[in-house]
Each structure stands twice: as C-alpha cells, then as structure tokens.
Amino acid sequence: MTTFRVGYFVGSLARASINRKLAIALTRLAPTELEFTEIAIGDLPLYSYDYDTNFPPSAKALKDAIASVDAVLFVTPEYNRSIPGALKNAIDWASRPWGTNSFSRKPSAIIGTSPGKIGTAVAQQHLRSILAFCNSPLMNAIEAYIEFTPGLINDDGEVTVDSTSEFLANYMKEFHGYITRVYTAIPRTTGEYRAQSAS
Ligand SMILES: Cc1cc2nc3c(=O)[nH]c(=O)nc-3n(C[C@H](O)[C@H](O)[C@H](O)COP(=O)(O)O)c2cc1C
C-alpha cells in the first residue's frame, strides 16, 4: 500500500475554530493511505523580504514541514470575502526566499466552512489564484463549500449529519486519487521530481 503524507493548514487562529473541527473531521474520514500532520501558522512573524537572508526558526520550521509532506490541504475560513491574513502571511513565508518556493509541484486541495450560505466560496477562489501562482497542482474537483450549522461537527471531529460525513469522506477519497495521479506522472523517487521540488 502506497501512503502519502499530507500537511494540513488551518487558516484560523481562533481557539474554537469551526475550520479546525472540519480539519479534524477530514483526517478521521480520509482513506488510510493518507497520513496527516498539521502545519502550524500561528507563531510566524509578519513576512518581509528583509528576512530573506536569515529566516527565523518558525519560518524555517514552516518550510521544513512543507518539504516533509507529499501534499498540502488548506482548511480555511473566509474573512471579508478573502483568506485570513494569517494564512496569506504563512503562504508568503513559504514561497520565499525567491527560488525556494515550498509549494512548487506540491499537490494541494482547498476546503472551508462558514456559517454563511456560500461556505467560504469567495475565499477559496482567491486561494486558488494564489496557489496557481505558487505553481501548486491544485485539485479542481470536488469543490467543497461547507455551511456550518450548530453541532454539525463536534470537538472530536465527529460529523453528526450522515450526508455531510459521506460528502467529506468522498472529498478525501478524491484527494487521495488526485495525489496518486500527480505522483504517477512524476514519481516522488525520481531525480526529476526532486529537482523540480527544489525550484
Ligand atoms: C474578520 C472576519 C471576517 C469575516 N468575514 C466573513 C466572510 O467574508 N464570509 C463569511 O462567510 N464569514 C465571514 N466571517 C464569519 C466567519 O465565517 C466565522 O467567524 C467563522 O467561525 C470563522 O471560521 P473559524 O471559526 O474557523 O475561525 C468573518 C469573521 C471575521 C472574524
């Protein structure tokens, strides 16, 4: 059985984040071939290119964490019809210094939840644009805009509505298939892949 390591970003810093609940639910519902680790973004200072010659430990840890996984999953809220500043800041750190963009050739997927009816759709569109520029092969479908109703997911990441649980399980099955296809085209073990990853 081929396993893939997935690093997930939670775009919210809030203690009671509904997106963190969603992230935990997704790790529980995913195929066993996917292994998860959270990539933390809360301790990063605000990015400036002044740091490019000497990244602080938290930013080096961020880039190391991304390098150690096969794919990344973004689970993000929508703030003012875009992604939260904390998540954009983390992406900016990981994309630099120039020539060492951590997302290049790294498969990704986006999902998010909001109490609003459109379930983070606008933020996700912005994030798609950012990840395209960062040269991340991004899963186009299934799109997943989750309207969070009270009690939908408990603190343990248990989904209380069967249809949502099935949808999320299928989303993760699709992501597993997508990662598999990317690495079937360019296997992880080839020198070609390693060279591209470093760019
Ligand atoms: C600064 C701010 C901006 C927000 N803007 C939006 C928005 O544009 N669209 C939306 O659906 N919800 C918006 N919300 C409500 C969030 O969806 C809600 O707070 C949600 O719980 C955030 O996810 P989290 O709990 O994972 O942080 C906003 C909340 C905050 C604090």
Fill in the keyword field for this structure.
199 residues, alpha/beta, five-stranded parallel beta sheet, binds flavin mononucleotide
List the helices and strands and how they pair.
Elements lengths: L3 E7 L7 H12 L4 E5 L18 H11 L3 E5 L9 H10 L13 E7 L6 H13 L11 E3 L14 H24 L5 H7 L2
Parallel strand pairs: 1-2, 1-3, 3-4, 4-5
The chain binds flavin mononucleotide (FMN).
Please characterize this protein's 3D structure.
The protein has 199 residues and is α/β, with parallel strands linked by helices. It is 39% helix and 14% strand. The protein contains six helices and five strands; from the N terminus they run βαβαβαβαβαα. It has a five-stranded parallel beta sheet. α1 (18-29) links the parallel β1 and β2 (34-38). The chain starts with a strand and ends with a helix. The structure holds flavin mononucleotide. Flavin mononucleotide (FMN) binds next to α1.
In brief, what are we looking at here?
This protein is α/β, with parallel strands linked by helices.
- Can you summarize the main beta sheet? 5 strands, parallel
Q: Could you tell me the strand content as a percent range?
A: 5-15%
Mean pLDDT: 94
Along the chain, the helix and strand elements come as EHEHEHEHEHH
Question: Segments where pLDDT lies below 50 for 5+ residues?
Answer: 194-199
